[in-house]
Amino acid sequence: MIATLVGPAAWLSLGAAVAERSGAWAATETLVKLMLTLWMLRISVLDHRTGRIPNALTAPMFLGVGLYRVVVEGLMLQQWSRLWLLPTFAILFGMWMLHFIGGGDAKFLMGLFALFPSLEFLATLAFLLLVIMIPLLALEYRQRGAGPVASLRGLRARLLTGQFLPTQAELQERGRRYAWTFAVPAMAYMWIYWAWPAAPSWWPL
Length: 205
Hints:
Number of helices: 10
Distance between the termini: 29 Å
Radius of gyration: 19 Å
Shape: globular
Low-confidence stretches: none
Largest sheet: none
Order of helices and strands: HHHHHHHHHH
Strand content: under 5%
Mean pLDDT: 79
């Protein structure tokens, strides 16, 4: 049921991107934010339980909203800053192909950047990821009994073998189900900083 909210949330986000504010239209802000929150929570829960993020949950955002940002806003409306989504998507795709992150994580991040194409979101994501990941990594090293010496040995082994990049097998074996670490900064940015666009001229109320 929650998955069916993705389509309406994506279309409302697309329609809102071209608008002028009115009281009735502004009242839909909470509804859209709630649907997007449910979308992010759904992805986080599925990733945590199964290690998979279905394309049905990410494609409407990174394809639908992403195309709108680039084609309509970037090219047709000449908001050239929107075109930075293209290298952003390319970087995320490259990280996926090089096995630094999983495909589901890459597409989830593409969807988030399509929804929130701003430097403020990038800064929020980077800062909160740092805050979240430092204790997570420290806890993981402690549980595994690994420390700086073990990490240096692993790095030395990679240098000696020439295997500088992680493999698909390593990603599947050691990859962490951390989609929620992307969702938390996105939800914080959305509820605190995201400026709701105004109502379109066709809005009747």
